[in-house]
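debug: dumping io for the single-chain case to check the tokenizer round-trip. Nothing else runs in this session.
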Amino acid sequence: MERDSAQLTKQRSGSTDVDVLRMDIEGAEAEALKGMENIRPKLAHIELHPTLLDQGEFDYLIDRFKSWNMEIVTAADDTKEFDFESLNDIPTDLDVGIELVLVNR
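debug: decoded output
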């Protein structure tokens, strides 16, 4: 039987809290998170490619991050840091990979 890592974490520790969630999966972030419904990370490091996601997937990701009470610590690409005040400020048409570091506050 195949199990995802969130199920194994819950089974082993009795908790769905996750210290760090790291994803760099080129546009498959929404699909991956749908398979991890019960996790609640304290810190997330996500490489996000907004133009690889359709609007529904992008909205789902932002809503998931908000449901975890996540706030942006840093947001940057290879050349610069972005000054996003909140998750709502991330543009869907940004054609670069954004390294997002989010923390549960």
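debug: round-trip ok. Strands lie at 17-23, 40-48, 70-76, 98-104.
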